[in-house]
UniProtKB/TrEMBL annotation:
Origin organism lineage: Bacteria, Bacillati, Actinomycetota, Actinomycetes, Micrococcales
Entry keyword Endoplasmic reticulum: no
Domain of life according to the entry: Bacteria
Ranges annotated as spanning the membrane: 144-161, 181-211, 452-475, 481-505, 517-537, 557-580, 592-609
Protein name (database record): YihY/virulence factor BrkB family protein
Coiled coil: none
Signal peptide: none
SUPFAM superfamilies in UniProt: alpha/beta-Hydrolases (SSF53474)
InterPro entries, A to Z: AB_hydrolase_fold
Keywords: Membrane, Transmembrane, Transmembrane helix
Record Gene3D superfamilies: alpha/beta hydrolase (3.40.50.1820)
Amino acid sequence: MLIAPAKGPESATRPELGTFDAALVVVHGMGNAFKSQILLEWAEPLLERMDWVARDRIIGADETHGVTIHDSDLSGDTPIVTATVRFPKHRDPDAADAAVETVERRIAILEARWSESFVPMTRAQVFRWAVPFMWRAITRTLGLFWNTMVVLSWLTLGHHLRAPRETLLLPRWLNLVVDLIRVVVSTIAFVVVWTFLVLLGVVLTPILPLLSPLLLIPWFKDLAQGVLDQLVESIGDVASWKERPVRASAMRLVVRDALAQAKDLVGDGDVHLFAHSQGAAVATFALFEELDPADFNVRRLTTVGAAVVLLGREKWQGRKDVYTPVKTWIDRNSANRREGKPHVAWSNHWAIWDPFSAGPITDTKDAARKRWQAAYFPSASTIALGPEEHAVHNTSQPWLDHGVYYANTVQVVEPTARHLLGDEFPPVPQPVEYIRNRLVVIDKKSLGLSTIAAFVIAAILPGLSGASALFAWLIQAVADAVAWVIGLVPGLDGSGAAASVAFLIDRGSTPPRLSTIGWVVASALVAALLVWLNQLMQKQTERSIVWDRCPLDVRTWLVLTAIPRALYVFGAAVVVWFAILDWWEPQPDTGWLVVSGVLLAAVAVFVIVEPRFSPAPRTVPEQETLEATPRVVPPPEPMRLGIAIASDEYRRELAARRANLQPEGAWATWWAKHFHGWTPDATPAASDTTVI
């Protein structure tokens, strides 16, 4: 609806049925979820991003636009957040001088929390079930890592060999060298990961069934019960979903009730269903197998880190455990289309290191392979049935990727927010969207590589002779300082301070060095410091992409953000070189030291530039039929950074953002002058400046 500009924020009002334009139902993943936990996890970043995009001056926004929160009921039977978003209506590019029309869209976000809707299984039942499930999860994880680490490297090499010279960033021979190094390094890394995961599975296979009986031993119960209870709490819901159909039905009932409440709130408006992890399996089954989405006005299903394929459906004795979610979704849409009911779009986001989603959602392994390849190198041979697939980069760290989709603003949060805002919200020009996505990929890959470099430095540095002596001196100096301070207090003896750190120092060497325990402790502290600094720098580089109203031009950003990565990687190379010099027996000759230095430098350079030259994933459109002309037609010229930077759309947007610069403070003014050419007499652009 179109309205006149508001005079100010509305006062909070209770949600009224049928008055909302859109409602989002969020469903949590495996494990116990506290009331309003999943609601806050997603409502806060979604509304924050909606406010940011709605107040963007280059779409014609001003201070009257943005988000107004009405209700934040976090303790009711169904926690809910309601808000109004005001933004300039999308204008025809040929009518950019037309007056700004403001759209007001009322949005409700509510949660479906199913974790307390059933009685959990016992520890013994969960641990007996966990062994075959663990091997299924390990197998799928290894398949994902094989594709991400090895197959993608080979596909990139083949693509570069076939690509015309003018589309390559480097000379063909140099591209071949880089690609071969990537293949070798990735293959070695995969072998290490495969060995670790398989050995872990072998070790846990006989242990898991014994954990519950071992709790009968008092000392073991005191030691391990807390950890085991947390483990059961995490995977017990999964076991209940697969092994107990009645409890699985109770989970789905919660989703149905939340959809019914959302339908009451929107009337004829749109309902969106958003689900994470196991919640995606619960929501998908409920929506397409048991319900008619049209009855609840569901227009879109969004899944993140979806365990739809991993978990499938509940298991009944005597029934075939066959589940085809894609076919069910297509059949449901086909039936509704024949009856004149609306289509249900399905967007699936999976992180490339997420072991639980482990890639696209499909009904067959062949379709999964095709759609995975289509995320990087689409062709006529990669077309397969499935929802819209988004391969995303969360942290580039397998142990974190599954739980932080809500922190991926560009690739997950903003697309979801724009779906809720509807078609009247101004879109982002395609080259600009590509640039932001590509820079996020580079940034997250850099985070992962710098983290690996940090662990290499931390593991080796305290063991080097000079560094070990320095750490030992530093520990002793701190202990002596503490003893001196204690000695200043009458009646206290600080001599025990030095004795308390004696186990960290080997005094039998000259000069004193770290003991083995001291080495481990120092490595842990150095790793914690380096990882913290790395994450701190990455937050700043990511913020410059995601939240700066006037971001740096792409080439400047690439250079500046490569500096911390280079420091970490070259630091790791230097530490490894000194380790060769210090530990190699017999002492290596000068020629070998030179050769090893050159090889380490070459590897360091490759690691530094790899995020810039490696392929970035693209969106795979949803595919509901393979008949006639395929809906997915790969572009003849894939978008690249150089093409996007040279585009008129990107140049116009950057110019518009610079024209709107109003720096406040000495640092912001200095930054604007040196990186955006801002001058003190620059006049801010009018509020209706737009490039869309």
